[in-house]
Amino acid sequence: MAAVLGLEGYCRARVPRRLHELIELRASQLNRCDHCIALHTKALRKAGESEARIAALADEVPGDLFDARERAALALTDSVTRLGPEGVDDEVWNGAAAHFTDSELGDLVLSIATINVWNRLAIATRLDA
């Protein structure tokens, strides 16, 4: 747990708070991790996020309520979370690369990977139950 907490702290220090929470909620929704969905929904509300944007994250493709940078990060979140044999689609990667530096992309991927670890830990240990 200390290792995952270390990753979480690293990511939180490098990815803007609201974007980080959007990523965490979106990945948790895709993974159907009820515990993490509740946790990150509460964190977004506390950060002043609108109910409309929180609800829109559950859409198949989050839309106009998010700016281009957020949409690119959320598309990357979807692709990394649903990672298939072909990896991240070039269009998704290039879309994110248009809005983030190489370093920021690395931080986003690490953030997405970290929430996926948390989701799997919560689901595997029946934290949702």
Describe the structure.
- The chain is mainly alpha-helical and 129 residues long.
- 71% of the residues lie in helices and 0% in strands.
- It contains seven helices and no strands.
- The mean pLDDT is 95.
SSE order and pairing:
Blueprint: H1 2-14, H2 17-31, H3 34-46, H4 51-56, H5 68-81, H6 90-97, H7 102-124
Helix percentage? over 70%
Based on secondary structure, the structural category is mainly alpha
Please state the overall shape, judged from the principal axes of the Cα atoms. globular
The proportion of residues in beta strands is: under 5%
Number of helices: 7
**Strand count, sense and closure of the main sheet?**
none
Cα-to-Cα separation, first versus last residue: 20 Å
Q: Outline the low-pLDDT stretches.
A: none
Spell out the helices and strands N to C: HHHHHHH
Rounded radius of gyration (Å): 14 Å
Mean pLDDT: 95
| DSSP, total strands | 0
For the structure shown, list the relevant keywords:
single chain, 71% helix, globular, 129 residues
Quick synopsis:
The chain is mainly alpha-helical and 129 residues long.
